[in-house]
Amino acid sequence: MTDITNVTVFGTGVLGSQIIMQAAYHGKTVTGYDISDDLLAELPDRWEWMRGYYRRDLADFDEAKFDAAIGSIRTTTDIAEAVADADLVIEAIPENLDLKKQVWAQIGAHAPEKTIFTTNTSTLRPSDFAADTGRPEKFLALHFANLVWRYNTGEVMVTPQTDKKYFDAVLEFAGEIGLVAVPIHKETPGYLLNSLLVPWLNAGAALYVNGVANPADIDNVWRTATNSPHGPFQVFDTVGFNVAANISRASGDPTRIKFADMLQKGIDAGKAGLGDGQGFYRYDSEGNVVEPVEDWNLD
């Protein structure tokens, strides 16, 4: 059992809120930080959205335990308050290197000496902003998959400067909050999961952007020919358009940037994936596909 009891999560969006609940549901004392009270005010709706999925996906789901988790979660817009007693910080803010550098410098300036630092970055190299924390030997990556309670991998990845004892501690912590801890001994952008997943998603996006086929047809051929449960555009819905658009824009690739601009239309309409009940597909209250959204079809 680790000494990691007090956990602070930076970023309360689609994945950040799931990380908060995952840790709180497994008995950790969790503080969620975000930049505005308006963003924090969205969390009660996220808890109720998650409740339905926890109930559906977890055979041993405990309603009272979920309620207790909600009641235990603290939130703040003050960085110093957020990290005042943190044993572990998990950063889940947008995939922007300059923003991560800025936020980590502030976290490092306010966190107590005991705090271990982790990033959930999906595509950036943690070592590119490790120095900004002020304690790179205590800094590493802890990467979560979307729908954390169901797809419960916890990829724990070192940087060249990470002290092994903190690597071991975070691996154990991952197990304590219900994750399958996956050790990654050498830093690589994308970890194991995204190193496999992102090229596949990009291939699907390119077929659509280049006018080859509609999203639902691309998904259908993949599911039928491979017996996989989901095609790439269903995965884009699960990941959420905001995350996918940020990663695509940061790539610098013209095709991926065009795809990000297409996703932005869904974001602006408030239909940015499974969490909104609609993305490339419409979903029922339990997250099952109802039908493809024809507005995404090619002309």
Structural write-up:
With 299 residues, the chain is of the alpha/beta class. It has 2 domains: 6-184, NAD(P)-binding Rossmann-like Domain (Rossmann fold, 3-Layer(aba) Sandwich); 195-296, N-(1-d-carboxylethyl)-l-norvaline Dehydrogenase, domain 2 (Orthogonal Bundle). It is built from 12 helices and 10 strands. Helix 1 packs across helix 3 (43-57) and helix 8 crosses helix 10. The longest helix has 17 residues, at 193-209. The chain starts with 5 loop residues before the first strand and ends in a 7-residue tail after the last strand.
Structural class: alpha/beta
- Write the CATH architecture name of the largest domain: 3-Layer(aba) Sandwich
Radius of gyration over all CA atoms, rounded: 19 Å
How far apart are the first and last residues' alpha carbons, in Å?
57 Å
| Helix amount | 40-55%
InterPro entries: 3-OHacyl-CoA_DH, 3-OHacyl-CoA_DH_NAD-bd, 3HC_DH_C, 6-PGluconate_DH-like_C_sf, 6PGD_dom2, Mito_3-hydroxyacyl-CoA_DH, NAD(P)-bd_dom_sf
Domain 3-hydroxyacyl-CoA dehydrogenase NAD binding: 6-186
Pfam families: 3HCDH, 3HCDH_N
Pathway: Lipid metabolism; fatty acid beta-oxidation; Lipid metabolism; butanoate metabolism
